């Protein structure tokens, strides 16, 4: 047959009938392979067609694998100067090996051993091909289920290699990759990037999340000298697996020829959309997963090694900032104490630094209750002197106050009484609302967590009453550990469930009075009246005999009844809570309901029955807690640049757009109030000038008087100063 695709389809239908044709084509492949070795740099179309043909039909003749060993010839061709082979021929050879791997014609470890050396070749398309196929094959062979949730089926037809259990295969692949990491850490960067990309991709798929992957592979990759490899590993520890995989998805970043390639021409209509698609994923787009940080066996050695590398000025500032983010999150997540971290952060805490908000966010995340307050005093004092001071701009003061609030949320003992009193005075700053709002937020925080540190006049009504009655929880001092004996807020959950149960019982116990006949009711009443008369006669007989005994025992009975009632009340209060906390397992929905009930109790001071029912029904919707709630976003601290401040000034434009959208959706036109707001400025000025010309003297005097009173309210009363010379006696 002259057509190889036709012969290929015929062999798949009837392999035994076309065995002789297969042998002829295989001998032709061997002869063309020998001629290909002479000039590997030239394209050989017939050789590539034969390679593709044999790769597709080779699994149909598994009995001839020893006689006609096709993979051995391909591996020998790739070992002999692979850099000189033409890119198209090299791609066909690698594709043939990967297709045989997919059909279980070659063991996975053999393919990894032979093809991993090709990652060092400057061929971007080849690296992408090997990376994608290896990632899918390793993922399917080292796990019980595939990415779609289906169990992997082992192909029996054409399977030459012996089936290996997924756990054993995973162990072999991890040992192979770990051996390459240790050998290629300082010599072969492309191979190391390929390994890092595979590990990050498998971690992102949730296939490799075991302790060996985290503590051996990712920790070693984070210590590599190549900044891309170590950055990808550190993004995994930050919970940003999407960003880490995107960094090394293009494994051929060292290819010099790819830098000079021009992008495909883009039309003007599709240019904006394509740029949005090509934009790198940001931190907010990535998923938050702290499995890597929680799985660290030696968090101290890991964080100290990364911090030491950052302190030695290794890499660019962005790389050092990434290292600081990893260290600070590990410090808070695992409650570590690194005394040399806070002095190093002071080096970058200046308003002139462009990334100062990110450094302040790192500082806030590096604070927790187990950090000694003396260690934090120096950096807190540094923030007060450089950010929260009278010589600073209002934007700088706002950022400093927000950063201090983030620190005090995690470590309330970071500020002493004198520092807190000085900071709270900024709540009366009338020239900047952002500063006063940030100061009030810090004041409200201490009213909730530590009102004793505030002056009596600053505690507020509820906090002052709570302090006076002794109802506030005493804040834990440094080194003090509290053992929880109960679940906080479980009493609210008990009350909500009890109320819901009572309402259900009332619905089932309702009985219509119209169902009973009037005759039966009359008979029952007559019987009850007769029984009451007999009981009264018997009671009168025994009353005289028991009068004296009852008088003596009245006092003892009253005391016993009071004690019994107190015991019943205490049992009723504590019984359901203890049984619910010890005898039942609370689900995630129960904890969400408890959080919702506690928030309602904090707002209203008490909870009504309607609130209990509404919160118990809708707690699962509104009370969802994200994994990364303790992470401080640098954007929430504020902005020091003019661009960030201009965004706040665009609120009027956004308000106008919202009004226009609202007007389009309703019937009729704009209201008079909306027209007045959207009126051009010059028309308003002209109208105001005409109005002033028509004013009388009395109206002008009244307007001036109102203007003076408004100025007095803004500035405040003028201070009176009296000297001793002119003072009255």
Topology summary:
Blueprint: H1 4-13, H2 19-38, H3 45-57, H4 70-79, H5 87-102, H6 108-115, H7 124-141, H8 166-183, H9 189-204, H10 211-222, H11 227-237, H12 241-247, H13 256-259, H14 271-278, H15 291-294, H16 299-311, H17 317-334, H18 341-346, H19 356-365, H20 373-386, H21 394-410, H22 417-424, H23 433-449, H24 461-469, H25 490-508, H26 518-583, H27 588-604, H28 609-622, H29 642-649, H30 651-665, H31 672-677, H32 681-693, H33 697-715
Helix pairs in contact: 1-3, 2-3, 3-5, 5-7, 7-9, 8-10, 9-10, 9-11, 9-12, 10-11, 11-12, 11-17, 16-17, 17-19, 19-21, 21-23, 25-28, 27-28
Summarize the structure.
The chain is mostly helical.
Explain what this protein looks like in three dimensions.
- With 729 residues, the chain is mostly helical.
- 64% of the residues lie in helices and 0% in strands.
- The chain contains 33 helices and no strands.
- α9 (189-204) packs antiparallel against α10, α10 runs antiparallel to α11 and α11 runs parallel beside α17 (317-334).
- The longest helix has 66 residues, at 518-583.
- The model is unreliable at 154-158, 250-287, 541-555, 557-575, 605-628 and 725-729 (pLDDT under 50).
Determine the fraction of residues in helical runs and give it as a percent range: 55-70%
Which secondary-structure class do the elements indicate?
mainly alpha
Largest sheet geometry: none
Shape summary: elongated
| Mean pLDDT over the full residue set | 75
